[in-house]
Amino acid sequence: MTLLFFERILQEFCQRNHLSGEQFDEDACCHLAVDGYLPLLLRADVDNARLTLYGPVRSRISGNISPSLIHMIKQQVLAVNVVLRNQGPCLIPQTPWMLGYRHLAIASLRVEVLEEEIEKFAYWLEHYR
How many C-beta neighbours within 10 Å does residue 43 have? Predict the structure, then answer.
């Protein structure tokens, strides 16, 4: 499995949802803004055959999502090794919020599944208790 599979899924997702050409960077990460206020980071994990969604728990961002916020989330994602659970929160040091994550197995990953999982994950992030 290579990054090409994840890139194809992402391209089709962007086309279906009228997003500009989002793509994975050199760290296999891509950021999306759900409804313009919820920053999500997608990370393609070729070694573990999964795509992981990350986002701030119970944090609505008003206005534009700044590149510095996306960078901070990405740095935390790269520093955290989330292996065992399929979903959950993890604390982000030196910030007032938590980062949520959800793993999606590559075996069942299709564009329709990604759309549904992003919708469920966004809801979970907003309503986590």
Answer: 22
Return the closest-CA partner of residue 73 out of 11, 4, 19, 25: 25
Whole-number Å distance between alpha carbons of 128 and 58: 7
The angle at the Cα of 100, spanning 82 to 75, to the nearest 5 degrees, equals: 65
Percent of the chain with pLDDT over 90: 25
Please give the residue that has the higher pLDDT: either 17 or 92: 17
In angstroms, how far is the first alpha carbon of the chain from the final one? 36
Instruction: Supply angle C-alpha 5, 9, 13, rounded to 5.
Output: 170
What topology is assigned to 3-127 in CATH? Yope Regulator; Chain: A, (3.30.1460)
| Token pair for 65 | 């999502």
Handedness of CA 85, 94, 118, 105 (dihedral sign): negative
- Domain ranges across the chain: 3-127
